[in-house]
Each structure stands twice: as structure tokens, then as C-alpha cells.
Amino acid sequence: MRLLIAIIAGGLFGIGLHLSGMTDTNRVQGFLDIFGAWDPTLAFVMGGAIFPMAIAWRLTIGRTPVAGSQFPPRPNPAITRRLVIGSVLFGIGWGLVGLCPGPAMASLGYGGVPGVVFFVAMLVGMASAPRVSLMLDTRAASA
Amino acid sequence: MEVSWLWGLFGGLIIGTAASILLLGNGRIMGASGILGGLLDGTAGRGWIEAVVFVAALIATPALLHYLGTGTVRTNATASPVLLIAGGLAVGLGTRLANGCTSGHGVCGISRLSVRGIVATLFYIGAGVATVACLRLLAGGL
Predict the structure, then answer these.
(1) Could you give the number of structural domains in chain B?
(2) Structural domains counted in chain A
(3) Where do transmembrane segments lie in this chain (chain A) (predicted)?
(4) How far apart are CA B10 and CA B5, in angstroms?
């Protein structure tokens, strides 16, 4: 059951990313290009995705998942250095190429060599995060 | 292309539905970087098979749509290896440090009014805007 739900969610996520145009780097960079020919499409994608999800969060109140024991707890609201530094780094990479993790996976099957190069570099970046995170922590502790 | 925002809204609704199914069904947050990163560093734990089939389906359906010829879009990603590698490293490292990307913080976080999700989204969009503006200045366009 959990596997079936994961397949359906992953498959729908891919279809949504493809149809919305988010696998097209021109469209994503066009959204970030507010000083040029701004393309608002990404704002509609975000709005369209947030709407059902806001309903879903309301439905979690007082319930348990269909095939699980509990819903994810609310995260600690603290705004940490890691959150800010990580988000800025992510934004820079996103701006440079126009791909974020979801669309990078969704376009992997037909994105050609550039898509594969980006994906492999992304995996290397992900794998190095624990080490960088430790460095940030030690520097914060010694400062 | 005038109707691109309609496709965006439609695709967005499908993305939100997918995230809702994963949340209400399995009690999981649909974050692309979290699910992929969890597989890489082993934090996916016993849920690793779910993560694998999720990723496999996420890669397979757009490829199917593409090769069947419906809604065919090219990715248009740059051919510059320097940009691709620098961008990939920054996205991978950044999303794991921040514990989320556009799907995790942007879609799942904002929709539950998570302060962390909203702050992360403001920072990555701001950094993305600044980066594209710099690219435009340096290269005179994209």
C-alpha cells in the first residue's frame, strides 16, 4: 500500500512538473529574470500546488495517515544559519542553470547530457552536505 | 505560449495533488531533495524502498509523456559544463543544508504556513533573481 502510494505520488509529481513547464530551464530562469522579460508561470505553478496541499494539511488535523502511523511533526521554527546559507546556495545554483531537484529528476530521461551532468553534480553536492554542515557548526562554535 | 500560465496552474494542481496523496497516504512530506538526499546518505532508513519507487516514477512519467509526444518540451539547459557542475553542486549542497527545496519548503512548507519554509523560499528566490541578473550582466543575456 505504501509503495503504491509512493508510485502514484512520484508519477503524478513528474506529470505535473512536465505539464507545468518547470522542466524547461528557460521558463524557470524567465521567472527569476525580473529585470528582463519576466515569465510569471512559476508563480501559477506554486499557487496551484500550494492550494490542494493547504487543504491536505487541514485534513491531517486529528487524523492519522491512511498507510502510516503519524503525520510529520511541525518543524522547529528556528531560522538557522544552515537554513539561510543553504537556501542562498540553492538559489544561486537554481539561477545558474534553471533546474531544482524535482525537475532535474523529472527531465533526466530526456534531458540529454547536460541534464545528466547537472544531476551527478547535484548528487555530489548532496553527499558533501554533512561534511560542510559539520564545518559550519565548528566555525560557529569557535567564533 | 500565451496560455503557459494556464498549463502552469494545471501542472501545479497536479503537483499539489501528488504532495497531498503522499502526505495523507504515507504521512510523508513530498520534498524532492529530501527524498533523494535521504537515499544518498542513508537517512531514508527503512523507507528507502518507498523513496526508490517514488524517484523511479518521478523520472519515468515525464520521460513517457515526452517520448509519446504529448506536451513535449525540451529542457533547454545550458551546454556549459562549468555552469552545469557549479549549479548542480550548489543546488545539491544548498538543498541538503537548508533541508528542502522548491517542493519541500516552497509547496509543502508554505501551505502549512511554516516560517522556515517561507524564509527559505524568500532566500532562494532572492538568490536566484540576483544570479540571473548577474548572468545577464556578464553574458548580455542567457
Answers:
(1) 1
(2) 1
(3) 41-61, 82-104, 110-129
(4) 8
Q: What is the mean pLDDT of chain B?
A: 93
Q: Closest CB to A17: pick one of B11, B36, B91.
A: B11
- pLDDT band at residue A143 under the 50/70/90 scheme: low
Cβ contact (<8 Å) for A92 and B18? no
Residues B71-88 have pLDDT tens digits of 556 789 999 999 999 999
The residue segments making up the domain with residue B47 are: 5-139
Cα B80 to Cα B135: distance, rounded to the nearest angstrom: 13
Q: CA B98 → CA A56, B30, B113, distances in Å?
A: 24, 15, 17
The residue length of chain A stands at 143
**Structural domain range at position A59:** 2-142
Interface of A with B in 27-86 (CB under 8 A): 27, 29, 32-36, 39-57, 59-60, 64-72, 74-79, 82-86
| pLDDT for position B139 | 77
Rounded (10°) CA dihedral B77, A117, B119, A14:
70
Q: Tell me the pLDDT tens digit for each residue of B41-55.
A: 988 888 999 999 999
Assess A140–B contact: CB distance below 8 Å, yes or no. Answer: no
Q: Which residue has the cell 487524523?
A: A63
B96-to-A118, A126, A133 alpha-carbon distances in Å: 16, 6, 9
Q: Annotate B91-133 with DSSP letters as a single string.
A: HHHHHHHHT--IIIIIIIIGGGT-HHHHHHHHHHHHHHHHHHH
Q: Which three three-digit cell numbers place residue B127?
A: 538568490
Alpha carbon distance A24, B55 (integer Å): 19
